[in-house]
Amino acid sequence: SRIPPALFYLHLLQHFDLSGSDFYFSTMPSKLAPLTHLTHLSLSS
């Protein structure tokens, strides 16, 4: 699956939980860089 691009425009996003989803990343997506308020990121399966 792909993450909807609109989510990367939520610059004030603090919590991003993709756990249990079917997303797969071999490296961190560079699109996360602008999310400077992000304090919690969950990518667990």
From TrEMBL:
It comes from Nymphaea colorata (pocket water lily). This is Uncharacterized protein. It comes from the Eukaryota. InterPro entries: LRR_dom_sf.
